[in-house]
Structure formats: C-alpha cells, structure tokens
Specification:
single chain; Helicase, Ruva Protein, domain 3; Rossmann fold; two-stranded antiparallel sheet
Length: about 280
C-alpha cells in the first residue's frame, strides 16, 4: 500500500465517524509514524508503506477513531511557537491561552524597571505558559505550581526540553500555597468548565484530566479560591491575570472587585471576540 492509498483510506474512515479535520489529522499521524516533514510526505506519496509502519499507523488510527485527541497520539502540541510534550497526564494547551502569555509579557516588559521579576504560573499543567514566559523573559524567575504530581512530571520534561531548568521552579501544591515568596505577577489558567458544560462536551474532552477542567457547579470554584489567597498581591505595580471561560467575565469581574476594590480590573477579548482574560492590576 502506498502512502497516498493509506492516507485516502484512513481519511475516509475518520470522515465516516464524523471526525472533523480528518485529512489534517491523518497526515499528522502518518508523518509521526514515518518521522517526516509535510514536504517529504508530499514527495513520497507513491512510495510503499512498510508492514511495520502500517501496523503502527493503524494502531494510531484506531485510537483516533475512538476520539482520542491527536496531540496525545503524537505526544506533542505547539503553543506560542514552541513544541511541547503532552500526554494524558496534562491538558492539551489551547491557542486561546496564548493571549494570557502575550498579556503577561506586556506587563513584565513594562514593569520590570531593569530588575528581575518573580512570576507565578498557577496550575501549570504541561508547563506551556511558564516555559513560554521563560524563553521570552530571560531575567524573570518563574514559579510554576500544580496540585498534580503527574502534571509536574510532564512540565519537567518540557522544562528540560527548552533549557529553562534554572529559571522555572516547579512546586507541588494548591494554587498559591507552595510559593516561597509573593510574586510580582500571578498568571493562572485554572479549571473553569462548569458541571453542566462538562456533561455536554464532546468525546475528545473525556481523554483529558478532569482535574484540569472541572471548575465546580459554575466553573469558578478555583478562581474564587485563588482570589481569596491573593490578598498579599495588594502592593503597587503588581498584577493578577486570569483566563476565564465564555460568559464568565461578568461574575469574575464582580468577584475581583469585591476582593480588590482599589485595583484596576478589566476583561480582555481574545481574537475570537470572547472575553478571555481578566486583569487585576495594582497601580503605583
């Protein structure tokens, strides 16, 4: 069987199971098996697929037919221009979270005043946010916390992969509790999917760790706790940036204003027009 025939057969199988982006997914899986680039794939379409390669490809295809996300099948996901190792111990990094990184970089660059900043990434998961920040802020020190020891194991893999072991500290614990000192900037992508939304989600989400998704009845359980813990942030030129879900901005803004009435609190929209990040800044 040629590569072209394998692609066509597998794409049809995915399409029959109503899996969107079937052609894109199948090309990724085949490239993963053969360890080739997109350009090489196009150049080799008429070449024969060896039996062991077909077996590995078929195995991945079967898992994709069960709706297992492609990122878990190929064990990597791009985020903020970097390649991250991922598996089922961590949530797959989403493009919409890049806004959180961009806003963190903007704040850090405008408030560093020539001194190294201490940044806390709360609920780090794969480490995508912390490591993206470390690669762009060479003088910053970043503490990345997570309740899940398994998630921190994945973050450690990515920390080593991108050579930032000396600037990203991984800490196990609940939200801000493991931090050794007060951070200048806290950035958090916490679980914010409500119980009802979690029941309505598609089959792919079932493969991701529920602890990284489930935010309680209204999705804001972890955010409420973080706001309660963040009282030490009440100092000039400090900031808290929170990623939130669609339709949550009004309630999160209310909660933030109740906790920090003196702060500058705003919601910021992602490229899709959704209010995705709430910023809580303390002037000074």
């Amino acid at each position: 069987m040629t590569l072209k025939e394998a692609l066509n057969r597998a794409t049809s199988a995915l399409a029959a199971h109503h899996i969107s982006d079937a052609s894109h997914d199948i090309q990724l899986l085949l490239r993963h098996v053969l360890q080739i680039t997109q350009a090489q794939l196009y150049l080799q379409l008429e070449e024969e697929l060896a039996p062991p390669e077909w077996e590995r490809f078929s195995s991945l295809l079967e898992r994709r037919l069960q709706h297992e996300p492609v990122a878990y099948l190929v064990c990597h996901q791009e985020f903020f221009g970097l390649d991250f190792y991922v598996d089922r111990r961590v949530l797959i990094p989403r493009p919409e979270t890049e806004l959180l990184v961009e806003m963190t970089l903007d704040f850090a660059r405008s408030h560093s005043a020539g001194r190294p900043l201490i940044i806390a990434d709360i609920g780090t998961g794969s480490g995508a946010i912390a490591i993206s920040l470390a690669t762009n802020l060479i003088n910053a020190r970043i503490c990345a916390t997570d309740l899940s020891i398994q998630a921190l194991e994945v973050a450690a893999i990515n920390r080593a992969r991108h050579g930032v072991d000396d600037r990203v500290v991984l800490l196990a614990g609940n939200l801000l509790e493991p931090l050794p000192e007060t951070a200048d900037l806290i950035v958090a992508n916490l679980p914010y999917v409500s119980a009802i939304e979690l029941q309505r989600t598609g089959p792919e989400l079932a493969f991701e760790p529920s602890v990284a998704l489930a935010g309680g009845p209204d999705g804001l359980e972890s955010i409420r706790l973080l706001l309660h813990q963040a009282h030490e942030l009440r100092q000039p030129r400090r900031c808290l940036l929170l990623e939130i879900g669609q339709g949550q901005s009004e309630e999160v803004l209310r909660l933030a204003r109740n906790h920090f009435p003196e702060a500058d609190i705003q919601a910021h929209r992602d490229p899709g027009g959704i209010e995705r990040v709430v910023g809580i800044a303390f002037p000074g």
